[in-house]
Amino acid sequence: MATITVYLKRGDVDAATRAFQMAKVAHSQGHQTNLFMSDDGVYWADKNRSLDEKTGTNDTASEFLPYLVENEVPIYV
Q: 72 in helix, strand or coil?
């Protein structure tokens, strides 16, 4: 399997939700996955931030980020 690195540097809900989704898909398919947050992307590391804001396609970060945390996917901030 491959090593997949997902890089999130934007703080908007669409960019973050897609990054979390891609990381979840890669990990669930057996790839070694890492998530890096920098710049405005670090605001998603705040435990008090709501993960329920919807994207234009009605997805939410709450559909993907908890999987990454529960499965101990490395998240670097």
A: coil
β partners of residue 54: 60
Contacts of 23 (CB under 8 A, 6+ apart): 4, 6, 33, 35, 64, 68, 73
Amino acid at 59: D
CA distance 35 to 6: 5
How many distinct structural domains can be found in the chain?
1
pTM (two decimals): 0.94
Note the pLDDT tens digit of each residue in 23-33: 999 999 999 99
Structural domain harbouring 8:
3-76
* Amino acid (1-letter code) at residue 37: M
